[in-house]
Specification:
Largest sheet: 3 strands, parallel
Strand content: 5-15%
Distance between the termini: 26 Å
CATH superfamily: Response regulator
CATH topology: Rossmann fold
Number of domains: 1
Order of helices and strands: HEHEHEH
CATH architecture: 3-Layer(aba) Sandwich
């Protein structure tokens, strides 16, 4: 989706297996998207991609979910997706 609002709309229309979002987006942060998505799908694994320097703030928001540090390699993304989906069961 192009921004957080569009992402929420997509979440309402479909039931994804995994949510991957950027932290900095137009309209709302990835943290806010995760918070709202968590209300819709509490068990949905979520990942936030970020190049933001203060990781403590982001980790507080996402909790058990994963933070994917940018820039990342495709292999890192694939491994993170695999881990997130495995946690789901």
């Amino acid at each position: 989706a192009a921004d957080g609002e569009a992402g929420l709309g997509e979440l309402q229309r479909s039931r994804p297996d995994l949510l991957i979002t950027d932290y900095l987006m137009p309209g709302m942060t990835g943290a806010e998207l995760v918070r709202q998505a968590r209300g819709m799908y509490p068990e949905l694994p979520m990942m936030i991609a970020t190049g933001y320097a203060d990781m403590r703030l982001i980790e507080e928001v996402v909790g058990e979910d994963m933070v994917l540090n940018k820039p990342f390699q495709l292999a890192e993304l694939a491994a993170s997706v695999e881990r997130a989906l495995a946690k789901r069961g």
